[in-house]
Amino acid sequence: MWHNKIAASSFGAFQTAQEDAATRLPNNRRRMLVAIIAGLAVLAAIVIAGALAAEAAQTTDFSVKNLAPSFAHPFGTDWMGRDMLARTVAGLSTSVLVGLLSAAVSSVIALVLALLAALGGPRADAFVSWLIDLVMGIPHIVLLILISYALGRGALGVTVGVAVTHWPSLARVLRAEILQCRAQPYVAMSRALGVSGVRLARDHMLPHVLPQYVVGLVLMFPHAILHEASVTFLGFGLPPEQPAIGVILSESMNYLSAGMWWLAVFPGLALLGVVLLFDRMGSLVRRLLDARTAQE
Amino acid sequence: MRFPVIVRGFARFAVLMVAVSIVTFWLVSSSPIDPVQANVGQAAYAGMSAAKRAQLEAFWGSDLSFWERCLGWASLAVTGDLGTSLRFNAPVTEVIASRATGSLALMACAWVLAGVLGCVLGIVAGACSGRMPDRVIRGCAYVLSATPTFWLGLVALMVFSVFLGWFPAGFSVPIGMSASDVTLVDRAYHLVLPALVLSVTGVANIALHTREKTIDVLASDYARFARARGERTAGIVLHHGLRNLMLPALTLQCASISEIFGGSVLVEQVFSYPGLGQAAVTAGLGGDAPLLVGIALASAALVFAGNLLANVLYGVVDPRMKGATAHVA
To answer: Which option is the CATH number for A27-54+82-289: 1.10.10.60, 1.10.1740.10, 2.40.40.10, 1.10.3720.10?
Structure first.
């Protein structure tokens, strides 16, 4: 009896929420979709422009070295006469690609470990949470330096380093989500009907955690870029001959006292813009997918 | 109830340190950087006979297996001997101790500043939620949390040191001055800009968090009742909100030590500030494995201390939580 009553009342609430949503959601959803598509377009544009600017970023012209920003060189030129706009764009695309790759790898690590923790029994759960404590126990930058040292620096080191350091928070979220899903009646029912563990995870759990996974991936991405740039800046990441934002900023340090502000300001602003863009995009996706705020 | 928490804390600390040691030792020893070559230098290594190289390898034990080396290192490490730093030509513990003073001063200043500033801004934003101050603070917080620390340091150095000349352009003491002449004022003067830059990384997080909590508190029944009694918003926040706000903020701030340490590595590098972070970079770039392991251990200990502090303070601020383990958000 009481069960029915609760079901009826919650159904009523659901209905009003849906009606409420029906009047507002398209607007909100459209706004978010526009923002997300714009973000993806910017991403694609950076990568394509980076590929196009790769050659210009390497071209030296000593007749135009150390120029302040002008119409011919909007971001100025460096001490070898290289155009800073081309270098910035090429550097951004390198950073974005490394960030994308490492964030993707990291999120897969998070997903696998979360599944292991939630479905592999108490031993596996304790092991994963201990692993999380271990990774969180060392400051990210120190761990990144260590991993980069272990892999002999270079692009591989920084990609692996960022991938290995960024999964814990997402793994925690996903684990909680899977545990919640496992307690659902429909999972118990399919188990009673004889559905195998692997199929259960694939057909019932994965679709359930997918939204959180996507949100986590998008939000991880700006962090990955920031850490890649930081480690490269310290001299451990991408090699100096590659135009990366970290390399550009680290080189600009030598010319600061000469007052060549444009070497540091514009590439940094570009990096900040990209990070900010994807941070906001991640928050938007989360708000859209989170049942509590989707109707706002 | 207090005693077991601390005992359990130390047990966890021991396990963590062992794990961190093994992981860092493994990472460092799997590096393609040849320890013998790193020790004797490129030129000397090239001119060395094979027999001499083998002798050196035997001397440093790099021909032993991984576990033999790890145990050898660990048996010395428990007695407080972490080996000799290559780059600084001194025992690792000594290097860390001398570097830690500068680093800890920098981190402590930034940490306190970030906490206080973040709390104040968060409360102001929460109390004015939806209005102009809130929007400005929230916007700044979003931008600041996306700003790379080292870039902010570069810009600050450029504006305040190069163009305005208000602050020295790096180092922790004036250049060309003998160590005995350096006063505390000199050190503080060199600390201001790096500490400000470092604190900025923590402000955004704590401000946004405190803002949410302030809004929650102001929407609560007891805040509404206080308002009905005629208390003003400032009074409500001060008398009813502050303790409730302090708790999560304190935990968050203690948990942020890991980020502050990471930020200090970057800030020290930008400002050429001689601290642990700069030593870690020097060690990593210079193939100084013992120092790198030592600093990794020190940083892990610091982060653990932060979390432990959060748990203890939790009990002090909220007596209900005494004995229970705080969950760090």
So the answer is: 1.10.3720.10
